[in-house]
Amino acid sequence: MSTLTSVQVEKTRHEDKPVRRRFNPSTFAGWMGGVIIVGLILVAIFAKQLSPYDPAERVGRPFQPPSAEHLLGTNDIGQDILSELIYGSRVSLTIGIVASLVTMGIGTTVGLLAGYFPKRLGKVLMRIVDLVLIVPFLPLLILLAAYLGRSLFNTVMIIGVLSWAGTARVIRSHVLTIVQQDYVLASRTIGAGDLHIITMHILPQVLLLAVGQFVQATSGAILLEASLSFLGLGDPLQKSWGTVLYWAQVRGVFLTPAWRWWVLPAGLLISLAALGFALLGFSLEQVINPRLRNSH
Amino acid sequence: MRTKEKQNKTRLFFLGVLVAIMLIVTACAPQPAPAPAEEPAGLAEEQPAAEAPVAEAPSEETEETEETPVEEVVEEPGFMVERFRAAIIGDESTLNPFTYVTGEPGWNVLMMQYDSLFTMNIVGEPVPWLVTDWSLSEDGLSYTLSLRDDVSWNDGTPFTAHDVKFTFDYLTLNAVGRFARDIRGFESAEVVDDYQVVINLVNPNPGYVRLAFADVPIIPQHIWEGVNDPQNHQFEDVTNVGTGPYMLMEYAPDQFYRFVANENYFAGMPTVGELVLIKFADDAGAQAAFRTNEVDMIFRVIPPEQIDLLSMVDGVSIAQGPLFGTQMLMMNYDVEPFNLVEVRQAVAYALDREDMIDTVYLGAATAGSNGWIHPDSPFYNSQIVQEYNPERAVELLESVGIVDSDGGGVREYEGAELSFELITPSGNALRLRLAELIKEMLAQVGIQVNVASVEQTTWEDMVWPEFDITFGRSYELSMWGWSAPVQADVFRAPELVHSDPLIGPLNLSGANSEDIDRIANEMASSQDPEYRTEKIKELQQAIADEMPFVILMYPDGNYAYWSSVYDNLAFIAGQGVVNKLSFLPESARP
Amino acid sequence: MRIGLKGNRLLEYLLVFIVAVTLNFFLPRLMPGNPLALLAGVDVGLMTPEERAEVIIEAGLDQPLWKQYFKYIGNLLRGDFGYSYRQKMPIIDMIMDRLPWTLLITGLSLIVSSILGVVLGAIAAWYRAKAIDISLLWTMILLGSMPSFWLGMLLISVVSVENRLLPSFGAITPAMSLTGWEKTKDILEHAVLPVTTLSILSVPGIFLTMRYTMLGVLGEDFIRTARAKGLSEKVVLFRHVVRNSLAPVVTILAIRLGYAFGGTVVTETVFSYPGLGRLIYESVSNRDYPVLQAAFLVITIAVLVSNILADLMYPILDPRART
Q1: C-chain residues within 8 Å CB-CB of A4?
Q2: Residue C264 pLDDT > 50, yes or no?
Q3: What local confidence, expressed as pLDDT, does residue B34 receive?
Q4: Contacts of B23 (CB under 8 A, 6+ apart)
Q5: Crossing angle, helix A152-162 and helix A137-148, to 10 degrees?
Q6: Is there a contact between C292 and C283 (Cβ–Cβ < 8 Å)?
Q7: What is the pLDDT confidence band of residue B92, given thresholds at 50, 70 and 90?
Q8: CA atoms B151, B155, B160, B165: torsion sign
Q9: Res B31 pLDDT > 50
Q10: Do strands B448-454 and B419-425 pair parallel, antiparallel, or not at all (unpaired)?
């Protein structure tokens, strides 16, 4: 499995110098991503002001097509779909962000430790990483979700706990190169403690990388939340974009014309959020990579 | 030199990958297609050669069947339809009496191949089937059954009384599964002659005809007497030998079953030549295929939201009728104040069942009777009323001192807020929605409910630990539902409410009412049908007064089918349309 | 130059394998509830305690966990996966029935997505920062952001339900007894939508890897040398750049092949496709422990093998990785 690491190191090492001064597509992508994310977060924050109705309230007949009162129609028990989607952004974004914070937290810690103590501890940790990477991901995810029960907390933890391994790898390989640098070796010979070296010298250098990983993980976590909810393994009573699709699926909506105003917008929102974070992550990588090269 | 070497290796590698991929693709393409099982020579000739390519083009097929009016075909000595394709959800394994999986439609499909001594008629009453004549001894212990003499197993062996005796003995010996439970109380069977058999019971059991004789498939002695591990027995031509109107010819796991009509069926020639059951992972897949007429029917009740939509499709009809399944709200007597009858009554008054039916079932359900028994049942006590009356609910709550003293919108009982967890299985979408509505309605009368969707088995374990009520229960409020068989035999009602676990093994709320116990005991003490009917009506009133649970509704059965392909289904009350009568001519139905 | 696995590397894989087998055994058993309802059918509540006990004993569930574990290992070594609780048939048969279908759609989608990914990735890198590169890049990021089940639902709605262009479910038209070309055509028609869904999902990853790697290669000295030697752009592109960029892509492909076995759960569920993914999903929801164990094991082995293959291939493909 070490090949993955080498691929990633390879990727970063050989990254070309971005063309500056002219129109820079990656900067543009970053801005786009940022605008999307900020926009969605604003929607989530001001959900109450933006929603035409309380999403938990039955405000019309079930299965109504779009009308002036209900721009995206009503769902299977007469709740306003637009309001569901607006409120749903809260749960979906929160799950995505919190889950990838967990991912980043575990991944960075393990990566730091494994890179700094590469002998015994590092080996053990990397075996665990291998294991987490090898155990079939989605089946395990389904299993854990079914076992632990359906709640927001569980969804967040399951996604976080199962997806940190990639981050740990990337961080570790970077730490391995940092540890070899003169000033780290120097401060070691002066007798600086491990904790001091890790927090003062290494952590600052991997932080940006960790943030990049975090942003990319968020994109994945949003998609995972949607998949889990779709399979009925999220909490179907929490309004998220994924559960809106779950109800569309269990009530057979995609076989009817209603897919246009029920299935389509929910999926587009998920894609938009995932896209926003992916773009930002992509752009961040362009910024981070040259630094990686400099520190080499 | 180095580049050259590299070049060769790369080339070699790509060849390897290419070959590997090709191998994968070619290796798996032909393999999974099951070879058709060998058919008896006589049947193979009946196979219409022209039928095969048509099925892929649904519009063509529809037109074709429309061109040939159904009535005309009936006159001819052929099938009404050569082939009928139905969707089922999941796999039912090898579909013999020991391996089929679900009660519905597993049992229903199983009974296409087998016959029972009695069968249900359209109104859901058991009538003689393999039996011609029967009598019950004075003491209620011995059934003397005369059998038809014109029945043979579909391998040609004649069916006799020995097969009946063998079936009961064999099921007693291999005491696992639904049929072993059905025949519980069986003492012995005696063969009088080839076409007469006596079944002796340990105790009198007025429900035995419905419970055992109309449910248990008679299996052939000459096939099963050599089988010691019936549960692990795989599909072969021999094990799926029955007397029924269809024979299982082909079983492709997770894909389909193919049945062929038994043209010598004793009750009459089946109406459909070949019955193909196609398996789907979920409802949505089955519905998609149904809409495109890749299947002609779904062997399962369609969800309410599909009824209007599907009936608008040209060529599609909906078969509708009563089913005896229930949606109910369980209240745990161990959790105060549900031990107070006023509180349980208040909950029932606070629930607007019509609103629930209109919203969640879009009207396709019958409002629940507080007395448990379906209004369409001949044993229904029409004196029982239930109404939506939140004011009455409030009065009842306040009569036992449950008031909202701090003005927070939630009432308190003995200082604690009236707040409960309502659990419901996460896999059941309609139940989740019902639970949400219950939460909303109970909030109106000051009872706070938090809906928790939990995993199916966790939910079962909380309501019915180890499926044994003596283990107690650990829920506050729970959604629940009993399947049709529990309701189909109204005299089983005491099982739900009797305080003695032996008589009331399904008493999941912990009801203990002297009235109920007394009436149930009186009912059990007699064999007299009139007395028992009187008692069951009394019992319904007692249940309504006690309100151990709230019967929310009985969902109706709605089955979608392409009537342009085949329009001869029989709806058996409480059982639906998936039955052998649907595939027999009207003249052959009891 | 060394190809082949070092001894301790093999040992590591073995260790991972053993841990995975153990996990496979214990994880399903941590599920709540007991499988009694499945063993005995829906009317389990109507059984007497004696009858229930008999069911449990017959299935071996009354044994202590460690005894069940060693029995499990022993059976595995003999290639015996046991019987499915639910389907009451040998698990190995169930897996062998479904494996080919999963291989078919994942195999086809791997071919489609690797060709598309490599070609488009190479084009994007070659024309880097030009309009074509940027539009490809954006398309790929967009595609990578779509939930797969949603894509599947839309395909069914639009292609199958509304326009009736392709079958909406399954792997083959049931009970048609087709042969030869007709049958191949039928299977391919059923595979189109699942393969499309799977391909759209995996193209972006391959594309991005190819593009990144090739950009790296383009910056290397030997490419500059080749150009300086006056070789034509075509020769430089195909003989030097593309070939040197393929190693990471192939590695990723090899790893993906392993994941492909289990990664199709959602797609197979949406399309009612009778593959391994659908089997896993159904087994989880039915708590069919032995089937789940076996399916996990098959996937784990597939992942391990493809990782070993990737390790073996990498030095062959990429001379720079040799030391």
Answers
A1: 251, 255
A2: yes
A3: 35
A4: none
A5: 150
A6: yes
A7: confident
A8: negative
A9: no
A10: parallel
Quick check: A255 and B284 CB within 8 A? yes
CB C194 within 8 A of CB C274: no
Q: What is the CATH number of domain C105-282?
A: 1.10.3720.10
Tokens 């090492």, located at residue: A13
pTM over 0.90: no
Chain C residues 56-85 with CB within 8 Å of chain A: none
Searching chain B, which residue's CA lies closest to the CA of residue C313? B13
Cβ–Cβ contact C54 with B under 8 A: yes
pLDDT for residue B25 is more than 90: no
Q: Which chains touch A (3 or more CB pairs under 8 A)?
A: B, C
Per-residue pLDDT at C116: 92
Q: Please name the residue that has the structure tokens 């790697």.
A: C213
What is the tens place of the pLDDT at every residue in B146-195?
A: 999 999 998 899 999 999 999 999 998 876 667 877 888 899 999 999 99
Distances (CA, A) of B249 to B110, B246, B257, B272, B538: 13, 9, 8, 15, 50
Domain range summary for chain C, segments of one domain joined by +: 7-80, 105-282
- In this structure, what is the dihedral angle of CA atoms B175, B176, B177, B181, given to the nearest 10 degrees? 40
pLDDT per residue as tens digits for the range B274-294: 999 998 877 777 887 888 888
CB atoms within 10 A of CB B117: 25
Chain A positions in Cβ-Cβ contact with residue C142 (cut-off 8 Å):
271, 275
Geometric angle at alpha carbon C37, from C34 and C43, rounded to 5° = 150
Bridge partners, B134 (sequence order)? B145
pLDDT at B579: 93
List, for residues B479-524, the tens digit of each pLDDT value: 999 877 778 788 889 999 999 988 888 899 999 999 999 999 999 8
Dig out the tokens for C203 from the structure: 């193209």
Residues in contact with B127: Cβ distance below 8 Å, sequence separation at least 6, in sequence order: B118, B119, B120, B121, B590
pLDDT above 90 coverage of chain C, percent? 5
pLDDT of residue B502: 86
Q: How far is CA B483 from CA A191, B88, B328, B503, B545, in A?
A: 74, 18, 11, 19, 24
Find, among B325, B319, B365, the residue nearest to B488 by Cα.
B325
Question: Confidence band (pLDDT; 50, 70, 90) for C174?
Answer: low
Q: What is the pLDDT of residue C87?
A: 66
Give dist(CA A23, CA C248) in Å, integer: 30
- Examine the pLDDT at C122 and tell me if it is beyond 60: yes
Nearest CA in chain A to B282: A250
Q: In chain A, what are the domains?
A: 25-295 (1.10.3720.10)
Cβ–Cβ under 8 Å, residues A232 and A250: yes
Q: Which DSSP category does A235 fall into?
A: -
Q: Which of residues 89-148 of A touch B (CB under 8 A)?
A: 146-147
Provide the pLDDT for residue C6: 57
Edge-to-edge strands of the sheet including B142-147? B131-136, B142-147, B196-201, B186-193
Each residue of C20-52: pLDDT tens digit? 788 777 766 665 555 665 555 545 555 666 767
The ipTM, to two decimals, is: 0.78
Instruction: Provide the residue type at B182 as one letter.
Output: D
Q: Work out the burial of residue B281: count CB atoms within 10 Å of its CB; fewer than 13 is exposed, 13-18 middle, 19 or more buried.
A: buried
Q: Are strands B196-201 and B142-147 parallel, antiparallel or unpaired?
A: antiparallel
Using a CB–CB cutoff of 8 Å, tell me whether A59 touches chain B.
Answer: no
Nearest Cβ partner for A251 among B305, B440, B453: B305
| Residue A239 φ then ψ, to 5° | -75, 105
Please report where in the chains the tokens 């786009």 appear, as a residue.
A32
Is residue B108 within 8 angstroms of chain C, CB to CB?
no
The contacts of residue C48 (CB under 8 Å, 6+ apart) are none
